[in-house]
Amino acid sequence: MKINIDKNRLSLKLWEYFMVFALSIVGLLWLLQIVFMNSFYETMKIREITKIGNNLVEMYKTEDFQEELISLSFKQGIVINILDEYGNLIYPLDIFDIIKQPRLNEKLFNDFLSRLYLSNNNYVAYVVEDERLDESTIIYGAILENDDGSNYFLYINSMLQPVDSTTNILKNQLIMVTFIALILSLGLSLVISKKLSKPIEKITDLSKELALGNYDIEFDKGEYTEISNLANTLNIATKELSKSEELRRDFLANVTHDLKTPLTVIKSYGELIRDISGKDDVKREKNINIIIEETDKLSKLVDDLLELTKLQAGLSKLDLEVFDLSDLAENVADRFKYFVEEQGYRISIEKSGDTKVYADKMKIQQVIYNLINNAINYTLEDKLITIKIEEKNENVVLSVIDRGQGIDKDEINYIWERYYRSGKSHIREKSGSGIGLSMVKSIILAHNGEYGVESEIGKGSRFYFKLKRYANVKD
Predict the structure, then answer these.
(1) Distances from the Cα of 36 to the Cαs of 45, 188, 367, in angstroms?
(2) How many CB atoms lie within 10 A of CB 315?
(3) Are strands 152-159 and 356-360 parallel, antiparallel or unpaired?
(4) Which CATH number is 264's domain given?
């Protein structure tokens, strides 16, 4: 049976990265301790001999020079000599050296002088093969300047001890360390990868439930900040989706009601015309007018839905012109004469300052109409609605104020959303699908204006919008 393994799983990727890291560390240890051991040891030994030689050069001609030379030679196990310009040993000398007058091998001494004089420094350090001992030797040389006569040379010779035996020991140890490290890394990487991936897998499973429409789920916070932030974000998104779904259901219920009512009226009066009106022209005309009015309501509802869709999609173009917002507000208020004359509503208009704006007159007219209609729906018994148009700094502000019950704080953030309709009681039976304020929001945003609401329970609400005053509009 073939097992399908998802190579892109987070747990597998974390395990791979951890193993690569562990192998890299072990590989680095092998390189430093085994492969580069000899070169590393040689470099460190040359530095050590060079430091000793440079210190002796600085101490030359001091009282402690000879004592320090002998001391270092014994402590470090190295040969330290002072030679003249012919390679003869000057110091240290014992009684036998005085008789024998030892001299450095001519070939070695000539190579030594050649390297020293070609050096950019006053000293030289290098490695040569000692043919007698068949071992590598470190040679250090420096010029010891004398005030009178020829100069002397500091010559240091140190055997470069082989580290093969040490390398073999380290190699055996590293084999054990590598085996143990890989086992531990394998186990630790599996634990860590599972611990890190588990909360993400849990969030993924819950997200699938969310995609199926279950909005009652809650994403748990993890031990890590990033997981907690992700869970918080998804919880907020879940709440918003839940509210959106609720608004959608309300919208469908509202639209169904608003479509069904005119259709029922149209059908009823159509039947009256067919069955009762007969040749009575007055009744027939009255019934036909009612049918036309209800048809107009349906047409306006559809037009509003289409216009809102265009506005929110950015497809509705603005036909900009200069006009007085106060005059437009008065014209729109006149369309509500029926409520003033027949139902006792009072609409007061207050204006001050320069209220000319540069905007789409038809769309701003729709904004004002929706705000006044909203106020009529929710005002209380005094039926007073105040419309204020005033100049404020560089803006013109239009406010529609009612003395209704006000809006609850829990609802005030959602009244501008599409499909939303407040559940508060009202005086006049409200109709509409809950898109009036959403249209206000979309139209004002399309004009780069500002909108808002101030409300207090039991005292009423003030809906307003701001547009740039025409004098301050830049081309």
Answers:
(1) 14, 30, 81
(2) 8
(3) unpaired
(4) 1.10.287.130
